[in-house]
Fold this protein.
Amino acid sequence: MLYEKILSILYPRRCPVCDKIVNVHEGKICSECRKKVPFIKEPRCRKCSKPLSRKEEEYCYDCRKTTHIYKRGIALVEHKGPVRKSIYKIKYNNKREYLDFYSEEIIKHYGHVIKKWNPDAIIPVPLHKKREIKRGYNQAALLAKKIGAAISVPVYEDILLRIRNTTPQKALSEKDRKKNVEKAFHIRENKVKLNRMIIVDDIYTTGSTIDACAKCLKSAGAEDIYFITISIGDGM
Ligand SMILES: [Zn+2]
Ligand SMILES: [Zn+2]
């Protein structure tokens, strides 16, 4: 406790949205910015969790026209406004500490749902080795470890590999996204015989990356694949 206090004086926690120093009693985000975070609420798609405009609908437009390989997934927030910038900084400005806020909120809101999935393992979406070396870390793996530690589920980083250094998805159209990731992943032998796995990534857009990973994991014998991401964007 004392050690943590000293640490917080030496390295005060910064708000994941405005980057100002957060008061200890505020937790991991300043109270002003907490109000601006676009947390996803009901009604939401029963497949991908994207917000729905009408509560009579069960699935979003994307999930009605696409047969996903994964079973179901959860995203914490909508990929817009302040959160969009915050995630950008996690990836490209070394703001890894922002992940503490997002992982804490994921567990707070969805810990009970995730436990019901009864996962055997958590698998972060891998970066290509070259990109990971350049960035110094894989943000999806860091998030996966925080979630895994909180719910006591092992995280395997060496089962799924990215064998092609693909163009970043954000630059591509939906059709091209699918093609871009189709052959990007490779699975090492599923020695431990994992059945239910959760894929973790930072952003979900059309689901093509998650589906490509899910396809790979299923080809090695996994049964049910779920996903967790920080944010979800408009796939169209
Ligand atoms: Zn703030
Ligand atoms: Zn959906």
The first strand starts at residue 72 and ends at 78. The mean pLDDT is 92.
